[in-house]
């Protein structure tokens, strides 16, 4: 138990002070804010975006309703993810919830009590993006989901939209919308069978039952289970482990995997797409990597030295000064 607490604390130390304010549980750091751009700091913001070097953190901030998403918040989330995709300095994203839960799904209070279904809700339901966010398309860059507290109904569909999922050991998953006759319209019926198989997916879809972290890991629904309070920190660690690699190659291989799973009509078509989508820029990136291999970097399966560390101007000046002594 002590080691879990220490690991949770260490995982949080990689984040800046302002980022740590997003965590629902205490964790301190003495780090500075260099390389971090604060995009939104108001507690009233439904979507809070922060940037830590080449990683973008996107937080759902409606804790009073367990981060349930209404139409306005869904649109804001779509904009935030689109901005992340178009940002040339951002390579990997982390989607998380602020205040103890990831997301409890669509905010049913918006729909309840209406004499007729509002036109704006109808337009969103049948629109190209999705109610919960940009759930009806593939995100163009890797996105990691930090699952805490409740990740249910449409919130689970949001988690399925992400590439990888890190789940705290006391969090729960489930299509709780089943109880109220609210359909899955944000990709749940499409992505879940691809991830865990049709039989297991139908079990969760039809019954709406609760899924614990242990079961979620066993069936491949999540990729990591971590200690309580370590969800965001470990999701950030996972994002960093992806962001350190050459990104053209990352995106090519990721796109090919998704195309082969969801779009290709045959094995041959998937293989042809995998090869034909290799660009000159990607080959140049591979050539640079081959040069590093020739220098001995990565020998013995080592991952150190794969990405060159960018030095601050003062560090460069100090190195030049020392070389002249």
Automatic annotation (TrEMBL):
Transmembrane segment boundaries: none
Signal peptide (residue range): none
Pfam families: ECH_1
InterPro entries: ClpP/crotonase-like_dom_sf, Enoyl-CoA_hydra/iso
Superkingdom of origin organism: Eukaryota
PANTHER family xref list: ENOYL-COA HYDRATASE (PTHR43802), IP11341P-RELATED (PTHR43802:SF1)
Family: Belongs to the enoyl-CoA hydratase/isomerase family.
Name this polypeptide is given: Enoyl-CoA hydratase
Provenance organism: Anopheles minimus
Lineage: Eukaryota, Metazoa, Ecdysozoa, Arthropoda, Hexapoda
